[in-house]
Design brief:
Length: about 210
């Protein structure tokens, strides 16, 4: 099948299957390179100055600003002022960081203070400092393992004794009834607590940001 090269206009033979796949547009690698290096005129989004960029870069979504200075000015314009919930200092932060849940503290030291005590997502009325009840011993754990036949109740896989852990459903270390205890593997147990504490931290941060 005869087609014209999109760069030099020369007629070339191309298979119909190659055209369906989007190939066969240029007669040689030289024409392909010239096409990719062809320039287009764009207008800077910040200073509205006209400049040129390569067509291949424009197709990728680049070439919006004429220089790095204009790009940095645009980035600074996207910053907003926030007040630190710890030291009440006013600081600037980018909008994309606020969308990710940031913009609550001005520095790492203030963020470390926020994570202490009740500001930590793992805080549950101070219960984590208390030991388990006396009835939560190896005999009770063995009874739970026998009840569930060493099968994790989350992923439904069978494991050895060393890879299984007993979880309190209501997070109360002193409520050691059989109804409140469940058998999970170490991976499922760790994944549950990571997600649980992450949600608690997000709730605490939202409360502090709106207070």
């Amino acid at each position: 099948m005869k087609v014209k090269c999109q760069q030099c206009g020369r007629e070339i033979w191309v298979r119909p299957s190659a055209l369906k796949e989007g190939r066969g547009k240029y007669c040689s690698r030289k024409c392909l390179g010239l096409a990719n290096r062809s320039r287009v005129t764009r207008k800077c989004k910040w200073c509205e100055k006209e400049f040129w960029t390569y067509l291949s870069m424009a197709k990728k979504g680049c070439g919006k600003y004429c220089s790095n200075k204009c790009f940095e000015k645009w980035r600074r314009s996207r910053r907003v002022e926030r007040t630190c919930v710890i030291c009440k200092k006013v600081f600037e932060i980018h909008l994309c960081m606020i969308r990710k849940g940031g913009g609550i503290c001005c520095s790492r030291s203030c963020a470390a203070i926020l994570r202490r005590g009740k500001g930590n997502g793992r805080w549950i009325d101070g219960r984590s400092f208390f030991p388990y009840g006396p009835e939560f011993n190896r005999f009770l754990k063995k009874k739970i393992r026998e009840k569930y036949e060493n099968i994790c109740q989350k992923c439904k896989n069978k494991f050895t004794r060393s890879f299984l852990e007993v979880h309190h459903l209501d997070h109360d270390k002193f409520n050691n009834t059989l109804k409140n205890l469940i058998l999970w593997c170490k991976s499922c147990h760790a994944r549950y607590h990571i997600n649980y504490f992450r949600e608690r931290k997000r709730e605490i941060c939202l409360q502090l940001s709106y207070s």
